[in-house]
Each structure stands twice: as structure tokens, then as C-alpha cells.
Amino acid sequence: xxxxxxxxxxxxxxxxxxxxxxxxxxxxxxxxxxxxxxxxxxxxxxxxxxxxxxxxxxxxxxxxxxxxxxxxxxxxxxxxxxxxxxxxxxxxxxxxx
Length: 97
Prior knowledge:
The chain is of the alpha/beta class. It has four helices and three strands, in the order αβαβαβα. It has helices at 2-5, 48-57, 69-77, 87-96, and strands at residues 34-36, 61-64, 81-84. The longest helix is centred in the middle third of the chain and has 10 residues, at 48-57.
């Protein structure tokens, strides 16, 4: 993620979504604690470290139309709620923010 968010000189990439002013604040109680993901969230992320990183960053809820089973279980083990929603509802939710 670091290599996507920052350039070779360590400066923020201006158009990277997490560097935009409305999203660059780290999650804290009531702010930026929810991720709305696409289909098959966590596919290829079955290692516990992926869920630890999400929880460690302060995310408390992941909403997606589907989850990779192992990753979903790892999220729950890290006290991150995974909520399944239809693809259409997830897309609408993401667009509202």
C-alpha cells in the first residue's frame, strides 16, 4: 500500500484516494471505520496478517457482496465485523460517501 500511496521520494501521490483530504485522516472512533468492498473481498488474503492490518489500521466493519471464507473468519477473529450485502447495495453505499 505504501508504494501506491507515496512516490519514490516519499511524497504523497496527489490522486491516490487515501491522500484526498476527505479520506486521509486515520480511522478513529466514529470516523473512517467502515470499508465498502467489491466482490469476493479478501480473495488471496487468507493469511492472518491481512486481517491484522485492517484491524490495526482502525477499521471495524467491512461491507461487501461476498467474502473469501478464510479472510472473513480472520476478520472476525480480529473483532472486525464482516457484513454481506448485495452487489447493488454495496455499490450504492460506496457512492453515497
